[in-house]
Amino acid sequence: MPAPDPAAIAELAAGALAAAGIGEAVLRLYWTPGAPGAGPSGIALVAPVPDWIEPARARGQRLVSLTYPRRSAPWLLSGTKSVSYAAHIAAEAEAKRRGADDAIFVDLDSTVLEGPVTNVWWREGELLLTPSLELGILAGETRAALTEIAAGLGFGVETGTFPLERLLAADEVFTSSSVREVMPIASVDGHAFAQHVAAERLQRGLRELASA
Questions:
Q1: Residue 46 CB burial class (10 angstroms; 0-12, 13-18, ≥19)
Q2: Which domain holds residue 23?
Q3: 65 and 155: one domain?
Q4: Could you report the per-residue pLDDT of 166-194, keeping only the tens digit for each?
Q5: Is there a single domain that holds both residue 72 and residue 16?
Q6: What pTM did the predictor assign?
Q7: What pLDDT digit, counting tens, does each position of 58-87 carry?
Q8: Do 40 and 58 have their domain in common?
Q9: What total of structural domains would you count in the chain?
């Protein structure tokens, strides 16, 4: 498909936000091939920010690890942002069945990948770690923003291939996404994390960046 016109997409987004009239909101933009012969179409969807996010941020989410062989099976379309969320919905349902809030995907060898709709981070002292994009995870926009913000807050950032055991030994764990922003994690597979130092500082930094 041809690339969208940024000015036209900005106008579409502004119109959708104005029509919704709900203040702080979730904006999703889609660029599609359109109907046969009609050419590409831009779609803007606006919805309220889910009301469970701030209470969850205050208490921290509980996660469980689920095996998902995305890196081992390239046919699973690793790194693709798809409108098919069946596996992600199933993962969240399984996490809730196990008494948790959400999940972390790990590969067959326990390599940490990502959450169903989030990127995963953890802190070791002043070092932040997050799985490498080479593992086939989604290149989240919030992940990219936090990588830039971290240095200004005194944190180093390391990307790579890390086992779940290393995450479980961390000082704190958090996830990131465009809608949830920086979400502190209270526990993973029953391992508790009481500190949320980096998560709180990065959340403030992300909000400052968004309002700049």
A1: middle
A2: 6-48
A3: yes
A4: 999 999 999 999 999 999 999 999 999 99
A5: no
A6: 0.88
A7: 999 999 999 987 666 665 655 455 555 677
A8: no
A9: 2
